[in-house]
Amino acid sequence: MKALLKKIIPERLILSYHFWMAKYAARKFKHPSNKLIVIGVTGTKGKSTTCNIIWHILTQLGYKVGMATTANFRIGDKHWLNDTKMTMLGRTQLQKLLSDMVEAGCQYAIVETSSEGVKQSRHIGINYDIGVFTNLFPEHLDAHGGFENYKQAKLDFFTHISQSELKQDNGRSIQKMAIINGNSKYATEFFQTAKVGTHVVWTRQSDSTAEEADVLPINIRITDPRETKDGVAFSIGEYNYTSPLLGDWNIDNIMAALSVAVSQGASYPELIQPVATIPPVPGRMETINVGQPFKVIVDYAYEPKSLALLYEFARKQVGDDHNLITLISSTGGGRDVWRRAANGKVAVEHCNYVIVTDEDPYDEDPMEIINEVARGALEAGAVEGENMWRVPQRFHAIQQAMKLAQPGDVVFLTAKGSEQKMCLAKGKKIDWDDRAAAKEALKQLGYGK
Length: 449
Fold this sequence. Notes:
By secondary structure, the chain is of the alpha/beta class. 37% of the residues lie in helices and 21% in strands. Strand 3 and strand 4 form a beta hairpin.
């Protein structure tokens, strides 16, 4: 029914409905965002991880913090996984969650704010105080009708912050702020769009991609960023930071979160310990270990750029003497069809063994999606039956990956992370968790008993 209505009702009317529903939801729950300092995180990659790091740092600094992300929700110490298959909750659900945060005594709320959420007005009725821009790459192009529209949705979020009413705290106005990744080539556009009282722009001193950094006022400049087997490290002035989060990309996520903390008055020395104790984020570089002699990593990476970073990191760790084995897939429902063959290609370019399987087919034939991903793999030189297989049932694909693994190898289960559902045709959702499936497959192979 929902799909049928989308076909027969003009998009402008649907968007108008979303707008007024958002207004209604905020009013229904008595505008809870006015009673919190609300931090919105947007960008293409790293949003959930950045939100979780912000939550950890602010909590370590003594604040009570609520959070809503693709991966999980938090209200203070209460934590639960996101089983809605939504990055940004619908208007009524989100306002209810913000209201629950107020009721629990939270001072801050962190909201992962997606481009699709902005397009559907889910941000309307939320009085954000801080906007965080992580990065921007081509993604969700089908949903937005092209990259420029996708970028504009992100920019519209910062316009919304700029136009939102200032809150008062004991007679003091709470200034609106924008936290911007100065290494993004789109940094200047976001800086200029965010007409707020305070901008915090951070950058890597040695990053050659910082095309816009030289024309922006840089507030925080990091030096000596480096990736280690046990995490990442970097310096800000005389202060040295280490974190157990794996992968160079997490330096960017940490910097975005650290910049939020600095904007709230935290000093560089008092942030050393919180950064050093950042816990893993569910389904993001999450290691599954039940005693097997090879590594199993569950990660949410689902498009070529993120997958390449993931595989390149692992190759540096294990060298050429061990195999990288990956599940690879792509979502259905007409979403980002361009990346299907590209996912297969990048997997073959980096991994020794590739298993093409199902993810979230929605209303498409799963085998058609699998075949498109496999086409990219074959075009990149894969040999079916030798280093590439099509295994439609995801659990069977996980089983095969485990059987291929030898001591010292790395198995990647990509695309779903900690998601709790798999989306099938006609709106049907079934329970699913890659992490639980991995443990069961390992158990069946005799590990962890």
